[in-house]
Amino acid sequence: xxxxxxxxxxxxxxxxxxxxxxxxxxxxxxxxxxxxxxxxxxxxxxxxxxxxxxxxxxxxxxxxxxxxxxxxxxxxxxxxxxxxxxxxxxxxxxxxxxxxxxxxxxxxxxxxxxxxxxxxxxxxxxxxxxxxxxxxxxxxxxxxxxxxxxxxxxxxxxxxxxxxxxxxxxxxxxxxxxxxxxxxxxxxxxxxxxxxxxxxxxxxxxxxxxxxxxxxxxxxxxxxxxxxxxxxxxxxxxxxxxxxxxxxxxxxxxxxxxxxxxxxxxxxxxxxxxxxxxxxxxxxxxxxxxxxxxxxxxxxxxxxxxxxxxxxxxxxxxxxxxxxxxxxxxxxxxxxxxxxxxxxxxxxxxxxxxxxxxxxxxxxxxxxxxxxxxxxxxxxxxxxxxxxx
Length: 389
Prior knowledge:
Layout (H helix, E strand, L loop, with lengths): L1 H4 L5 H6 L5 H7 L4 H8 L1 H8 L7 E6 L11 E7 L2 E2 L15 E7 L2 E6 L7 E6 L4 E6 L8 E5 L14 E11 L5 E11 L4 E10 L4 E9 L2 E6 L3 E6 L4 E6 L12 E7 L2 E8 L2 E9 L4 E8 L1 H7 L7 H6 L10 E7 L2 E6 L2 E6 L4 E7 L11 E6 L10
Parallel strand pairs: 16-20
Antiparallel strand pairs: 1-2, 1-24, 2-3, 4-5, 5-6, 6-7, 8-9, 9-10, 10-11, 12-13, 13-14, 14-15, 16-17, 17-18, 18-19, 20-21, 21-22, 22-23
């Protein structure tokens, strides 16, 4: 009777276990060989992915502001729902064959690249949970390129193998026959189904450069912030690019605003901190650049509700209180209504639903020397395999 109840073929197990978090399932794999086989099965993982777990943490890798050298120290700040653990891990990606630069993460898979300089630069797709990884030859080793991971397991199931794409976007400057200079973005696409790169025929004319704040992928469409008032969009499935106007032009502010892109509930969000306060915008129509303001709180309200962490925030912003031109407050990453932000030398989580901040760690805990400029990538744990079934 007991043996039949706990059989992996029992429908009850297949119905109940996928509702658990990845963290809980990792513990349950130790119950028995049968449970380990069930939880490792691709069909089981496909069902479990539909639960859409909240972010489990954030990768943080500092960047030198005034030089092109890569910094190899990657920190991982785990969180659990609305709780910050105040722990930092520096060995999450140590299973890879070399030190890397973090780029992107999607449904548990992490995209990173070799550190420059190197003889043969590679792009790595890996899963820190099962420590599986795949190396991809890089067709273009330009440091100015931006690399994005497109992985949509709910649209392209992983039952047979894990299907994903890697997109490299590069910016070029050209001179016309009349002597006018213009810029444009071009795109290279890698498919795990073919194992090949191909150059997209799509180009997007734009004289702005991408900000080094990473990218956001929403339902297979990638978005990048630029140093202008536009967001670059690329749809790799249909090979369509577009420039989307940001909600508020930068020249409307007296102080330099801080912003970042993020995803929640399958929609693109734009987080803005300026003299008017903290705002959250959601993109309603990318082709008409229609945004809706879904959340706003003044700096005074933000400080009053979080006076344990904030003090005279409006005054410090107005007086241009900074160090080496680094803003006193910065937006780092947004995911599922959670904002990772920096205030002075500390990292905080801000929950839009509760309007409360929580201290996560100090900058000094993230690297041997503090970095105010960094690549920050939200990460959600998953059991997605990269090997063949």
